[in-house]
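USER: I would love a firmer grasp of how sequence relates to backbone shape in proteins. This is the protein in question:
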Amino acid sequence: MTTIRQLTMDDYRAVLDMQTGIEDDYVLNIFPKLIENPAQSLFGLMTEEGLAAVAGVFRLPNGNGILGRLRSDIRYQSKGNATALLKHIIAYCEQDPRMNWLGAITRKSNLPAQRVLDKLDMHSDSHFISLVMEDPGKVKVPAAAPWLPIEGTKAKRDAIEQAAKEVALAFYPYEAYFPIPYASAILEDAYIENLSVFRNTDASRIMVIQEDFKGRDIAQIQYFWPDVFEQDGLWAAVFHYLQQSGKQLVPQLDVLPETAFNIPAVFRDSFTKDDDPWLIYGRYIR
């Protein structure tokens, strides 16, 4: 008999006993933090053999939600468990009048995940490559004055909204690996207060740094134009920010594949090579 229910800390032992085939699986390791997070709901599909699959929804502002944390026990795969579990979570979200949009991201190479998302009537709306700068010390950019910080919640919001309007931004990188449809309503005061926003000298470009944690401390760089590697002052500001931080921050930047495939030589060795784009799937439920 198969049952699906929301997980609690009482299920931690069963989660740890799952064989996901992923070495040092961070989803299993951070399970307590996921359960404690009020924005995160985790569900499990139980069979007579045990916990066969885990997945959840992470709720974000303006009625957005990201499906994820999907893990299947390799002993019970190919039985439609992932599809059944995600269908249950979507139905759960549809009953919540606060929810408007559900999304999911997966690698272009992950054809099984794409087949599951197609069955869920979710559509691929955009794509990106997430560049991770593992060794910032290797970058030797020309000397330039760092971009200037923008102070104050209103000024930061105005700058982001203006930039988003200028580029007709469809998806906003609200967190690392959590892009959601852009709308000014997602820019809540508490969120903006934790952003560091910078502008160039003629105020024609802005850049945002958000500290995040995805298994390690990340400095997520938000930049909305394709010329990110032509902005020496931007990178001067990034490196100054890293030097001032008391954490070992790893810079991360979402770009279009064509930008990632044409990284200038001065940057190339500092970024982890990645030629497998992330696909953004989505579906409006209201």
Observations:
- The mean pLDDT is 94.
